[in-house]
């Protein structure tokens, strides 16, 4: 049985409910798990991309250039409050493909140049 190479590569102080960003070497994907009842989804996305790119969050392009951050927060807040079934939202932000799952997981993967 092979072991998937994963490790915590960056702390994410912006997201109180997270233990840090995890890098999956096999999938070349970064994953941040957070509690959507504690932290805003938009903040979790910014924290994940900033940590993955080793960039100060303030130096990133504004999230609203990629997606309506308020709508993203509202969607995930209402999903938790109403105990909706699982869903995900995917978009591109700051050279990363981002997928946010209603369970409280943000996955980011650097976009491949074609």
Give the helix/strand layout:
Layout: E1 6-10, E2 21-24, E3 29-33, H1 41-53, H2 69-81, E4 88-93, E5 96-101, E6 105-110
Antiparallel strand pairs: 1-2, 2-3, 3-6, 4-5, 5-6
Describe, in short, the structure shown:
By secondary structure, this protein is α+β, with helices and mostly antiparallel strands.
Describe this structure in words.
The protein has 114 residues and is of the alpha+beta class. It has one domain (6-110). 23% of the residues lie in helices and 28% in strands. It is built from two helices and six strands; from the N terminus they run βββααβββ. It has helices spanning 41-53, 69-81, and strands spanning 6-10, 21-24, 29-33, 88-93, 96-101, 105-110. The longest helix is centred in the middle third of the chain and has 13 residues, at 41-53. The protein starts with 5 loop residues before the first strand and ends with a strand.
Annotation field: number of helices: 2
**Count of domains:** 1
Based on CA atoms alone, the radius of gyration comes out at 14 Å
Fraction of helical residues: 10-25%
Mean pLDDT: 85
Strand proportion, as a percent range, falls in 25-35%
Q: Measure the end-to-end span.
A: 34 Å
Biggest β-sheet: strands ordered side by side in the sheet: 1-2-3-6-5-4
Morphology: globular
Low-confidence stretches: 1-9
For the largest beta-sheet, the strand count, sense and barrel status come to: 6 strands, antiparallel
Question: What is the H-and-E element order?
Answer: EEEHHEEE
Category by helix and strand content: alpha+beta
Give me the count of strands. 6
